[in-house]
């Protein structure tokens, strides 16, 4: 272990390392001693080896110290050489030598001198490069600005060869001179470059052919190669203003010619293929060449339009009539008063323009009313379907159909009853929003709102009438389970045959006997179908209601599973394939019939 005195000699930051080193040496010595004792060495031999080991440690430390001392001397010599070179360099640069800080050791002095040397070399190189670059820039600028003067200094390009470094004052003067030249050039270029660029774009857009020297310079000469005199820049600006005015006039002329040609084409009813062929590239090309071609076309087709003006007026009248038909106006509609006055004066350009404006107004109104007309058409179609259902309900022949068709009829009636009020509500909402700004909507001379209100009032009255009439109607009986025979015998049997019920007479009457009459049976069936298409059954006192419910469900299932088309071709005088008795003749002649439920 290290003693307290030795520990005080060691710097505090190395104390931990020193303690670890001493502990390691102690452990190593003890380990060597154990090894030597285990090897059987005598105590004298162990002492000799231990003394030799400690002497080797001392010599090693001495060698390290001598090496470090030699390195210290070399560092001192290097520092002195660098200091001398640095002093000479600062004299050439005409700069004050930097003052070395106090309290620096040799290594810190070396680092400080090295830093100062690098800074001096950087300053020298920067000055030489700056001087050469400034001279080069000055010459480049003065080539296009000959009215400017070259800076006169005491240093030329041979300064580097003569080992003469430019001073800061000389570089500053040259820098100011070059900067002023550059700034002046940039200002002039900034004023000229956009002028030239825009002038070229304008000339390209309008297909301008240069006529004077300034126009040729604007079109072909780069701004960097221009003579940057103020007179030339002002001349280029004036030329650009003239080109802008020229382009605006040309575009206005181009647009006007296109509009006139489109109007003429509309009058002459020129198709789209022919229009595209004539105006394909002329629409987007706004050049003198395009305008010249448009003028030729306008002159050519204007003569044709003038010759066909009466036919065009007639076509406008027909189109006006069609617009009124689209608006569902009444047959006796009339034109506005001013348009009628112009029409009385005969065909003219003013009359054609008035008709075109009126047609545009009618088309705009029709576009806004298209949703309303669609709703109204749907409402009318539903009303017509409902009327047809009501008419079909009065037809006794409808009972020849199967029960599925009657079920679909009922579903359709319910669907119409549900959707008619919804469409009516949508139409009323549309009318509320539209009529507030545009006035009432008329359909074939009648106010649409009044049509709907009238229909609604008539529908309500019919509903009240139907409810009053149905209040006295008797409740229909349940479906019959057996059909009575002409003899009134109760021995008839009901037998299921496939998906139908076959009824056979027990009276022994042969099939096809036309002389046999069954008035009771026929009248009974016909009256039953006249009463909502239901056959009266036996007294409800003798029928179990639960059994009737189950039987009805089973029969409905059988009816849905049966296709009427399969029995359509099997009808004969002895076989009645229908849910209803069609007429009394077949019923009286049939000894065997089938009822499909």
Automatic annotation (TrEMBL):
Pfam annotation, one family = MAP65_ASE1
Q: Name one GO cellular component term.
A: cytoplasm
Record carries keyword Lyase: no
> Is Hydrolase a UniProt keyword of this protein?
no
* Low complexity bias (residue ranges): 457-471
GO MF terms listed in the record are: microtubule binding
GO process annotations (BP): mitotic spindle midzone assembly
Specify where the region named Disordered lies, as residue ranges.
391-411, 454-495
Q: Which residues form a coiled coil?
A: 65-92
Query: Entry's InterPro entries?
Result: MAP65_Ase1_PRC1
Output the superkingdom of the source species: Eukaryota
Alphabetized UniProt keyword annotations: Coiled coil
Q: What is this protein called?
A: Protein regulator of cytokinesis 1
């Amino acid at each position: 272990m290290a003693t307290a005195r030795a520990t005080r000699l060691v710097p505090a930051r190395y104390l931990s390392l020193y303690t670890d080193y001493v502990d390691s040496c102690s452990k190593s010595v003890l380990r060597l001693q154990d090894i030597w004792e285990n090897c059987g060495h005598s105590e004298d031999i162990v002492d000799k080896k231990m003394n030799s080991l400690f002497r080797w440690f001392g010599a090693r430390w001495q060698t390290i110290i001598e090496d470090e001392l030699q390195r210290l001397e070399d560092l001192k010599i290097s520092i002195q050489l660098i200091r001398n070179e640095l002093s000479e360099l600062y004299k050439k640069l005409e700069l004050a030598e930097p003052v070395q800080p106090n309290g620096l050791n040799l290594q810190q002095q070396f680092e400080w001198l090295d830093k100062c040397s690098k800074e001096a070399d950087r300053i020298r190189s920067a000055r030489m490069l700056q001087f050469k670059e400034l001279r080069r820039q000055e010459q480049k600028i003065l080539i296009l600005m000959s009215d400017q003067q070259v800076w006169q200094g005491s240093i030329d390009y041979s300064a580097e060869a003569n080992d003469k470094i430019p001073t800061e004052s000389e570089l500053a003067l040259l820098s100011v001179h070059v900067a002023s030249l550059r700034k002046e050039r940039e200002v002039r270029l900034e004023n000229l470059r956009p002028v030239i660029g825009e002038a070229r774009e304008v000339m390209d857009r309008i297909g301008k052919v240069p006529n004077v020297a300034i126009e040729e310079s604007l079109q072909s000469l780069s701004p960097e190669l221009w003579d940057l005199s103020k007179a030339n820049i002002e001349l280029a600006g004036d030329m650009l203003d003239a080109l802008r005015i020229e382009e605006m006039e040309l575009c206005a002329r181009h647009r006007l010619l296109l509009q006139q040609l489109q109007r003429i084409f509309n009058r002459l009813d020129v198709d789209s293929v022919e229009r595209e062929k004539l105006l394909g590239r002329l629409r987007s090309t706004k050049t003198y060449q395009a305008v010249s071609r448009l003028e030729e076309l306008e002159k050519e087709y204007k003569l044709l339009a003038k010759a066909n003006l009466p036919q065009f007026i007639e076509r406008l009248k027909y189109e006006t009539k069609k617009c009124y038909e689209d608006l569902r106006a009444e047959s006796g509609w009339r034109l506005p008063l001013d348009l009628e006055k112009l029409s009385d004066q005969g065909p003219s350009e003013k009359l054609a323009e008035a008709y075109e404006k009126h047609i545009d107004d009618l088309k705009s109104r029709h576009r806004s009313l298209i949703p309303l007309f669609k709703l109204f058409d749907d409402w009318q179609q539903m009303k017509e379907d409902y009327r047809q259902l009501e008419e079909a309900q009065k037809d006794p022949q409808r009972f020849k159909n199967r029960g599925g068709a009657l079920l679909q009829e009922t579903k359709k009636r319910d669907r119409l009853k549900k959707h008619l009020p919804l469409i009516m509500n949508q139409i009323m909402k549309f009318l509320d929003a539209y009529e507030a700004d545009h006035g009432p909507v008329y359909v074939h001379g009648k106010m649409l709102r009044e049509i709907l209100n009238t229909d609604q009032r008539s529908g309500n009255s019919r509903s009240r009438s139907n409810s009053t009439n149905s209040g006295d109607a008797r409740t229909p009986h349940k479906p019959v389970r057996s059909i009575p025979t002409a003899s009134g015998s109760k021995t008839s049997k009901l037998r299921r045959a496939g998906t139908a019920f076959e009824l056979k007479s027990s009276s022994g009457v042969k099939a096809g006997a036309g002389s046999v009459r069954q008035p009771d049976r026929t009248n009974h069936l016909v009256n039953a179908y006249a009463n909502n298409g239901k056959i009266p059954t036996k007294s409800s006192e003798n029928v179990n209601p639960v059994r009737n419910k189950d039987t009805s469900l089973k029969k409905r299932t059988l009816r849905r599973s049966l296709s009427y088309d399969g029995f359509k071709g099997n009808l004969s005088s002895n076989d009645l394939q229908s849910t209803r008795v069609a007429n009394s003749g077949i019923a009286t002649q049939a000894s065997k019939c089938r009822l499909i439920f």
